[in-house]
């Protein structure tokens, strides 16, 4: 047994950035192999509505990653107050374009647009985000396989597996139940045979439940929500939160904080992802991986 | 505070049978009203493959309930060793028949048949069991509505609501994660804002997790699995299990036991469903309710 002072760091850091780079270089290799053998590359189309600063950053990072991997990317930018039809038209063009294998509608959309209606139009075979209800149903149901697993949940699991964490039989708590992260992460953890509890805004004693978890996935979008005393000693913590906190001393006037109080968690957890540099890069790697898989499926290339 | 001896019964019994009868008489009234105003009645078609004793009992009860409510029922029975095409053909006929508003493929199917493939063919508008992956995805996703909520989960929630149980914010444990009961029940409880944990065969300490639950839904298919000491005093217990136990003293040579050790649970729980007479009749009432809703939708009858 080791003696631990109050300030000691116990947790090893999960280096999402370098894990993602490994995956990215495998993808780049596969894209090159595809290009050389059949003269085709995967294509990713992005539809972006409005000027949200965070969305712009995410999209920029995704397009940069495509370039690095040799994946063709194209983007349609629409103004904040565009009509639903304009989004649907852009979507239809990409649906029909055989050089596009993945389509991404950057969320959240402005309030006046019907997100569900728009996502329903997205071709199932190109839904690399995996947000279509049919994909979600196939993720939830045993004995079925979704065409695509949503990128952030898939990235969380990848981080766990690459860190040598066995998921089967573990108590896992997912904090947050968004359609994009919390829900599909809870379904995916169940596919890996974890015992899953889902915590949300109506949960009365989130700290008590989280305290029992071997694996904590924080995806609430609330900075520093998960304190050190929420965690079981030795817990494994995946922090999906990327909350901008104003900080004039930083380059862009803000810095990113996770949903986990990182400095406190470091002393209690055994493994933890940093923000930034944890889930973020892995999410992008999974998006490219889904796009590559989709192109392979389209060209029947193995 | 009341003094309780070891053998005292604390729990009130949830009378699923009489609650279901109430719903059934409302359905019968609605069917009559539909017949009188537009000359149509709802129709339910059942496809049954093989000779499973339990399936035969379930199907018989469903058809009897249809008769009582004035819903037209029809059945296709196929032998155990029938070909997949025969099932698919029967299904297609019912899909195309405008007098059929609900189609039920009695599960489980014999091993040699591809359940997923068969359910995929079932028309979404007639999927009164709610097992289609698109329905399941829409049940899982916030901001979307499934066309049909699976009958047993819907019945469990109905039993809770009619017993005056507030679900929002409650800790709920679902034991079992079948596609038919456990999974959709966990999704539906989340829609009602419970904090849900899902327990299954790989869960290491099911009794410890169950012990924290305000609401326990037992759907593991293991007789007497949930002992009295698994329950928090005052817990609300919904027992989905209907396990035949051999008993020569009973009429058919067997009697039904739930997944919960009923006599023990009676002393600890505050509310509990009996087996039989709890979830079973409510499931049938929900099937008829879904069939009625489907017919109303088809005829645009309100």
From TrEMBL, chains A, B:
Annotated GO MF terms: methenyltetrahydrofolate cyclohydrolase activity; methylenetetrahydrofolate dehydrogenase (NADP+) activity
Q: What is this protein called?
A: Methenyltetrahydrofolate cyclohydrolase
Keywords in alphabetical order, please: Hydrolase, Multifunctional enzyme, NADP, One-carbon metabolism, Oxidoreductase, Photorespiration
Pathway(s) per entry: One-carbon metabolism; tetrahydrofolate interconversion
Q: Spell out the reaction equation it catalyses.
A: (6R)-5,10-methylene-5,6,7,8-tetrahydrofolate + NADP(+) = (6R)-5,10-methenyltetrahydrofolate + NADPH; (6R)-5,10-methenyltetrahydrofolate + H2O = (6R)-10-formyltetrahydrofolate + H(+)
Function statement: Catalyzes the oxidation of 5,10-methylenetetrahydrofolate to 5,10-methenyltetrahydrofolate and then the hydrolysis of 5,10-methenyltetrahydrofolate to 10-formyltetrahydrofolate.
Q: Give one Pfam family, short name only.
A: THF_DHG_CYH_C
Which SUPFAM superfamilies does the UniProt record give? Aminoacid dehydrogenase-like, N-terminal domain, NAD(P)-binding Rossmann-fold domains
**One GO process term, biological-process aspect:** photorespiration
Q: Which HAMAP family match?
A: THF_DHG_CYH
* Membership in a protein family: Belongs to the tetrahydrofolate dehydrogenase/cyclohydrolase family.
Q: Which residues form the Tetrahydrofolate dehydrogenase/cyclohydrolase NAD(P)-binding domain?
A: 150-298
Q: Name one GO cellular component term.
A: cytosol
The domain of life for this entry's organism is Eukaryota
| Occurrences of domain Tetrahydrofolate dehydrogenase/cyclohydrolase catalytic (ranges) | 14-129
Complex and partners: Homodimer.
